[in-house]
Write a structure and sequence with these properties.
globular; mainly alpha; single chain
Length: 136
């Protein structure tokens, strides 16, 4: 349990470090791509939760379905990032007993594949290019 929660925080920390280091070492395109891939899980999560979230926003705000969906897409990325940090800290040592939170965290892990697979490929390519700079 602790390793999964610590892994989440360490993964984002190291990804940010790789992106910033690439940008500082005169590789702004690669650094920007690495940093941009960090939002992929949140885009996937926003899309996966869009129907339910739009319904909840409509109930809370009292707006129509279309406006609620638009509001969801505007606030979803910062809201999901805040939820990730809060939930991973809150449940650092325990498993959540509430079904919604448990399923959210599991869906979040699946969404991480959307970030991890392209990032692994990109970082392998970057490593090969940096180790063999003369070969194009």
């Amino acid at each position: 349990m602790v390793s999964a929660r610590a892994g989440f925080l360490a993964d984002y920390g190291t990804d940010v470090n790789v992106g910033v280091t690439l940008r500082k070492n005169h590789n702004p395109i690669w650094g920007t791509i690495v940093l941009s891939l960090l939002v992929v899980p949140y885009v996937v999560m926003a899309a996966a939760l869009a129907d339910l979230a739009a319904k909840k926003v409509a109930e809370l705000v009292g707006t129509g379905r279309v406006l609620s969906a638009l509001l969801w897409y505007i606030v979803s990325l910062p809201a999901l990032l805040a939820a990730d940090v809060a939930l991973h800290i809150r449940y650092f040592f325990t498993v959540p007993m509430e079904g919604r939170i448990y399923h959210y965290l599991n869906l979040r892990r699946l969404a991480e594949l959307g970030e991890a697979l392209p990032q692994l490929t990109l970082q392998a390519y970057i490593g090969l290019r940096l180790w063999n700079p003369g070969h194009r």
